[in-house]
Amino acid sequence: MSGEDVKSKTIFLVEDNKADIRLIQEVLKNSILPHQVITARDGVDAMAYLNQEGEYKDALRPDLILLDLNLPRKDGREVLAEIKTDPKLRRIPVIVLTTSSNEEDIYHSYDLHVNCYITKSRNLSQLFQIVKIIEDFWLSVVTLPLE
Fold this sequence. Notes:
InterPro entries: CheY-like_superfamily (IPR011006), Sig_transdc_resp-reg_receiver (IPR001789), TCS_response_regulator (IPR052893). The protein is an alpha/beta fold.
């Protein structure tokens, strides 16, 4: 690995389910890659963080966004649309990680230029594997944009 590959990554997890947040954090905690996980529990807070508004004025720009679609206050579909139409945010890779396997959600997400759509498993070991694959691919293999 070269020096630039070792830069700490910021993962922005937008998820309202506490159990899923804990599991994803637990999987990533065992990573050998330097990173930090920032969470938002609803779409309004997610957009405030990404736009560095209010209490988030010093927020770090995430290297990767894990986004649930079914969020309180502002739906994940709206969040995705806002991210992908904002010139300052649209290059941040967004992975939809949701329980929805609805074809309309899948097509709509890709129409909005989501980078990846993954249907969350309710099986804990499968969800663990999914998060591990995301980590291995998106944080080790992929070259992420700096801005």
